[in-house]
Amino acid sequence: MVVACTTIIPARGRAQDLRRPPDGMRQRVRQVLVIALPIIGGMTSQNILNLVDTAMVGSLGDEALAAVGTGSFANFLAMAFITGLSAGVQTIASRRMGEGRDAETAVSLNGALLIALLIGLPLSIVLLQLVPYVFPVLNPDPAVVEQGVPYLQARVLAMVAVGMNFSFRGYWNGVNLSQLYLRTLLVMHAANILLNWVLIFGHLGAPAMGAVGAGVASAIATYVGTGYYFLLGLRHARKGGFLRKLPDADGMRTIGRLALPNAFQQLFFAAGFNVLFWIIAHTDVADQAHATAEVAAANVVLNVTLVSVLPGLGLGLAAASLVGQALGRSDPEDAKAWGWDVVRIGAAVMTVLGLPMLLFPDLILGVFLHEADTLELARGPLRLVGATIGVDAVGMVLMNALIGAGASRASMVVSIATQWLLFLPVAYLLGPGLGLGLMAIWTAQVSYRGLTALIFAHLWKQGRWMSIKV
Question: What pTM, to 2 d.p., does this model score?
Answer without folding.
Answer: 0.76
